[in-house]
From TrEMBL:
Entry-linked InterPro entries: Bact_solute-bd_prot1 (IPR050490), SBP (IPR006059)
PROSITE patterns: PROKAR_LIPOPROTEIN
PANTHER family assigned to the protein according to its UniProt record, in alphabetical order: ARABINOSE-BINDING PROTEIN-RELATED, SUGAR BINDING SECRETED PROTEIN
Native organism: Motilibacter deserti
Name of the protein described by the UniProt record: Extracellular solute-binding protein
Keyword list, A-Z: Signal
Lineage: superkingdom: Bacteria
Taxonomic path: Bacteria, Bacillati, Actinomycetota, Actinomycetes, Motilibacterales
Signal peptide from the UniProt entry: 1-21
Length: 466
């Protein structure tokens, strides 16, 4: 079995990766200097600085305090909602940084055996990295049964490792195809329902002198991984109860079909090869360089925040379901998602679990999430709410995008299997996507190389590879 120290070392090596944007909004953490409220080392407090300054104001200073790290936008409002509704526990919240910045601090605390908060925000694909170090608490016996019906099976699978549940799901990224109506109208394109139709439409637009139809970014391996799942691939199989065994299937026919497909699009000049979430890419999106943007339900908020849809391209954006390999058997996929996990350094895991399950569960916070933040809540309370379903999304010029695309995608999503070597896999996959884009490898060759690379790494880390 992989040792905790080896996991810690490999995790630290991966913190340079850019965080997936779902549930991420950053936000500054300057309130420690403000002295905006201090939590004492009261009963029920935990690591992460029991006597540290809180970003929020603790309303009931006589109640036990649970420390929490999280970076959602407007998190202070959500914490205030929880604290005002709970007399038996209060949250002391700190923004320890978004994504890798927080993970690096958490890894340091895990390695040191002290300094971690009671509750920590983690993206779903990071959970196994910390779970294998015995840094997270299994929530199965700490209120999970009381809230199980509030989320889909797919949402729970993403935060599970083997038979254990190590996170309370909050937001996700059900995927769709964002497109420019002006480009589609100009070239007589209707939203493609299959990947064959997508390629045909891309060729039609290119032949007419139009823009690139999409983009195949090397720097977004999680997005490409979702596309693999959509074709029925099962890249990994992992459970801690298997005694250090991990199944790796990155060179299957399903994987090769997807990568060969995109290699074909790039070699024909039908889609771009630009890294995403860069100023250059956003400039291209605004400038009409791409007809489609395959992305998640959080993308409209991100794009609008980056300046898309606020100038000359205002009102031109729409969304449609992601094209399918087999439209008679559609597969829904997800890109991104975050959860709240209870750390093993929590003094009172029961109270910490109450916070993890409850901090984003009240109506006001859920509404704050989908109306004013760039997150897509996974709570079925929201997904079944007519106000959410029928919402006319301003970025899409009033289109009911939730009803038409994202709610069905979220409801149909079956979940992914994440592993402790996930961050290494992303790094290795980035290299292979780049090789495809540079014309150095076919999709099938890239899949073979990826399998060899990741399998070798897993064995080096002490796993038995199936």
């Amino acid at each position: 079995m992989k040792t905790r120290s080896a996991i810690a070392a490999s995790a630290a090596a991966c913190f340079a990766l850019v965080a997936m944007l779902s549930g991420c909004g950053g936000g500054d953490d300057d309130s420690a200097a403000d002295g905006a409220g201090t939590a004492s080392a009261g009963a029920g407090g935990g690591g992460g600085g029991k006597a540290a300054n809180c970003t929020n104001k603790v309303r009931n200073e006589q109640a036990p305090v649970v420390t929490m790290w999280a970076w959602y936008p407007n998190m202070e409002k959500v914490v205030d909602n929880f604290n005002s509704q709970n007399d038996d526990v209060q949250i002391c919240w700190t923004n320890a940084g978004a994504g890798p910045d927080e993970y690096e601090k958490f890894q340091t605390a895990v390695s040191a055996g002290s300094g971690a908060p009671d509750v920590v925000m983690l993206e779903a694909d990071r959970i196994p990295t910390f779970q294998v170090q015995d840094a997270l608490v299994d929530l199965k016996g700490l209120g999970y049964e009381d809230v199980k019906a509030n989320f889909s099976d797919g949402a729970w699978k993403d935060v599970s490792v083997g038979d254990g549940v190590f996170g309370a799901p909050v937001d996700g990224g059900p995927m769709g195809m964002i497109y420019r109506k002006d480009v589609f109208d100009k070239y007589g394109i209707t939203p493609p329902k299959t990947w064959d139709e997508y390629e045909a439409a891309a060729q039609k637009v290119k032949d007419a002198g139009g823009p690139l139809f999409g983009d195949f970014p090397a720097n977004q391996p999680a997005y490409v991984t979702a596309l693999l799942y959509q074709n029925g691939a099962q890249p990994f199989n992992y459970s801690p109860s298997d005694g250090g065994t991990i199944g790796i299937d990155l060179d299957s026919e399903a994987v090769k079909q997807v990568l060969d497909y995109w290699a074909g699009l790039t070699s024909k000049g039908l889609v771009g090869k630009q890294d995403q979430f860069t100023p250059e890419y956003i400039s291209g999106v605004i400038g009409g360089d791409y007809a489609t943007y395959l992305s998640a339900a959080w993308a409209p908020g991100y794009l609008q925040g980056a300046g898309v849809g606020t100038g000359d391209d205002k009102g031109v954006w729409a969304t449609a379901p992601l094209p399918q390999w087999d439209p008679s058997n559609p597969v829904q996929v997800n890109w991104g998602g975050s959860a709240f996990s209870v750390t093993k350094q929590a003094d009172n895991p029961e109270l910490a679990a109450k916070v993890a399950f409850g901090v984003y569960a009240d109506d006001a916070s859920l509404e704050e999430g989908w109306k004013n933040q760039i997150i897509f809540p996974l709570s079925l309370k929201v997904l079944n709410d007519p106000a959410f379903i029928d919402y006319k999304v301003p970025f899409f010029n009033g289109q009911q995008a939730n009803k038409e695309v994202y709610v069905p995608a979220a409801n149909g999503y079956q979940g992914m299997t994440y592993t402790p070597i996930g961050q290494y896999f992303y790094t290795a996959f980035t290299k292979q996507i780049a090789a495809i884009n540079e014309g150095k490898a076919s999709g099938s060759e890239a899949a073979d190389a990826l399998q060899k690379d990741v399998e070798g790494y897993a064995k080096e880390q002490g796993f038995t590879v199936q």
